[in-house]
Amino acid sequence: MKVNSILVSQPKPESEKNPYTRLADELKITLDFRPFIHIEGIPIQEFRKNRVHFTDYTAVILTSKNAVDHFFRICSEARISPPDAMKYFCTNEATAHYLQKYIVYRKRKIFFGKGRFADLIEIMAKHKKEKYVLPCSNVLKPTIPDLLEKHKFNYTKANIYKTVVSDLSDLEDVYYDILVFFSPSGIKSLFENFPDFKQNKTRIAAFGSTTIKAVEERGLKVDITAPSENAPSMPMAIKQYVNKVNKLS
Q1: What is the pLDDT, as a whole number, of residue 248?
Q2: What ranges in the chain are assigned the alpha helix state H?
C-alpha cells in the first residue's frame, strides 16, 4: 500500500529546514508532528525529600537539554549556584553548547562525548575522583546506571523531571499510514490513549532496539527500523521504505 501520510511522535523541529520537512517535500506526502509524551519538572518540595544537594558534588552528568533546563531550574528554585569549579559532562556537543543558556561557557570545565553514553564514560574515566550527580527523569535508560556502576564511579541519581503521557484524544478518528516512535514511552502513550488500538493497515516505524521490543511486546508489527547499516537515521529509513512501496525509485 502506498504511503500518503506520516505522524512523527515528537515535537515539530524549531527550524523549517530539517530532515523531515525535506523528506515530506521530496516524497510529496503529508508529515505531521505530535509529541506522545511530554516532560514535567519535579516540584522543588518533592525534590528536597531526596536530600540531594547539588553543591555537595564536583561534577554533573547531563544527558539531554531537558536535564540541563531542569538542573538549573532546581538550582534557581533552591536559591543555589553551582560552584565555579563544577565540571560538566555532556553526552554530546549540542547539549554542551546548550549550557551557554545558563553559564559562561568559556569559564567552565565542560566535556562532551559523541552521542553514546559509552563514549562519555571514556572521558569520565580520566576524572574518576569526581563526585558525580546525574540529573534524570523517572524514565532512565538502564545502560546509563549500568555503565556508571560497572566502572565504579561515585555518583548519585537525582530525579528532577518526569516523562508524562500526553492527551491524544483529538486523534481518535484520525488515520495515518505510518506512525513513528522513538521510545517505549511513546508506545505506552499510544495504548493509554487508545487501549483498543488495532494496527490494521497502519505501518509502524521504530527507532532503537528498546522501542522495537516495546512495539513487538504489544503484538504489533514493526515495518521500518532504524538505525541500521543502510539507514543510520529515521528519515533515511522512512525514505527508503516509501520509495519502495510508492515505487518512486
Answers
A1: 66
A2: 19-27, 44-48, 65-77, 93-98, 117-124, 143-150, 184-193, 209-217, 234-245
